[in-house]
Design brief:
The structure holds two protein chains of two kinds. Chain A has one domain: P-loop containing nucleotide triphosphate hydrolases (Rossmann fold), CATH 3.40.50.300. Helix content of chain A is 37%, strand content 26%. Chain A has nine helices and ten strands. Chain A has a six-stranded mixed beta sheet with strand order 6-7-8-3-9-10, with helices on both faces. Chain A has a four-stranded antiparallel beta sheet with strand order 2-1-4-5, with helices on one face. In chain A, helix 5 packs parallel to helix 6 and helix 6 runs parallel beside helix 7. The longest helix of chain A has 18 residues. The N and C termini of chain A lie far apart (39 Å). Chain B is mainly α. Chain B has eight helices and no strands. In chain B, helix 1 crosses helix 5, helix 3 runs parallel beside helix 7 and helix 5 crosses helix 7. The longest helix of chain B is centred in the N-terminal third of the chain and has 57 residues. Chain B is flat, with a radius of gyration of 26 Å. Chain B starts with a helix and ends with a helix. In chain B, 40% of the residues are buried. Classes of the chains: A alpha/beta, B mainly alpha. At the A-B interface, helix 2, strand 6, helix 3 and helix 5 of A face helix 4 of B.
Amino acid sequence: MRMEKEEVIVVKNLYKSFLDKVILNGIDLKLHRGENLGIMGKSGIGKSVLAKCIVRLIEPDSGEINVLGKDVLACNDTELDDIRKKVGYLFQGGALYDSMSVRENLLFPIRRTQFVDKKHDSQELVERSLASVGLLDVIDKMPSELSGGMRKRVALARTLILRPEIILYDEPTTGLDAVTSGEISELIIKIREEYNTASIIITHDVKCAKIATDRISIMENGVFMVEGTYNELVHSDRKEIRDYFI
Amino acid sequence: MSDDLITKNMKKINTKIISSRQIKVRKAQLQEEIRNFDTSIFIDLGELAIFTGKVIKQFFKPPFEHKEIIKQGFLLGNKSLSLVSVTGFIMGLVLTMQMNPILTDFGAQTLLPGVIAIAMIRELGPVITGLICAGKISSGIGAEIAAMTVTEQIDAMEVSGTRPLGFVVSTRVLASTIVVPILVIFADAFSFLGAYLAINIFSDMSSTLFINNAFGMLSFKDLIPATVKTFFFGFFIGLIGCYKGYNAKLGTESVGYAANSAVVASSLTVFVIDLIFVLIINIL
């Protein structure tokens, strides 16, 4: 008998509206351990809203969200903090703290969450995280001194510092040149192997979807209209699905 | 009736109908605006109260950010010190020049240092410093946190379980609560310097006599409420700046809006707190 992989995120019947505009219209989603799920769709369709609902940066109107076996919507603040420490989130613009150096950016979550006690251990963790994204040499630079691609990679290193079990990538390659976006896509795969993470990758970038995802869901009208592997979707009979990969 | 006249009258009637319609529409719009204005004030006050509760809760939750409080205190104080000192100096100078002829007419020139001291310490020093800090500190905090909100830095802290309210907000509120009373002391001290200089323009008064006259008329009844209210000024100036910045909407224009509304709200709050303190003191 084939063993089913553990579900790390389960979203059921999720609704979210802003004023009278329905963004999420009863959406369902499952993410398995070690899996990279791509989410594609037009701009403004609600992909980022879905990701933010999963970590409760946005409160959904109704539905169920289960992360690592815990009902996110029923959590109190402390329980929510515990779940959030296990879910990394890479923001579209990196969201590095401007007033802190790269080292301080990475040390900040460790210190605030008391992830490791000893100063020596936290320094080692910072260096290891930066090394895994290949940017150890920028450790004492300020975010304003970094290029767009570097900022994304440093943000990814900061996400990795708390050893998350799940990573939500919000447009990881947007605004980057083809070479750098390819490097980021490869990095997503490398991180999964190194840290054994499951990921949701919200992207418009076909190359990123091809390299970094195992399965892709295409969102339209607040629900997923189709799901499949990159090859299945690229060779779909329906033109409107193939259009996403042009 | 000629055709021209009929057309002219028809036009008049139409204009009247249109204008009465416009009035009705405008009336409905105004009613809606008044309703929205009323509710938005109450919603804002309610949200500010909830926000205040959350921030105060963070004061007692570890990890305590002593270093960040000192850093923010230094930045906020350093930013406003020169402005507050110059304003205090000019206030002392101008007030003395205005009061001197009046008191001279009554033959009460020796009371001048005492009158200036009471006016500055009880009222002008704290309120003017409060207003300057509302402009400098509250807008600065509002714009800084709004920029962090717009660039998702606050969300990034939230999502890593690092509680931005504790690190970003409570540290700035505490720093502002500590720094504003210190700035008021500077403003008062420089106003004394200005007053001393102004008195010596018109007449000759030794520094010892000036200090004796000034402090001779002051009592603890003047000092304590004036000092206590500056802590409240500082707390609300920091809090309102943080609140406006923290609740900024996405988009760069919201940074300017947060800074601007922080100045307006905290300036108004300075006057309201001052009024409350005066009423309490008068009752006591």
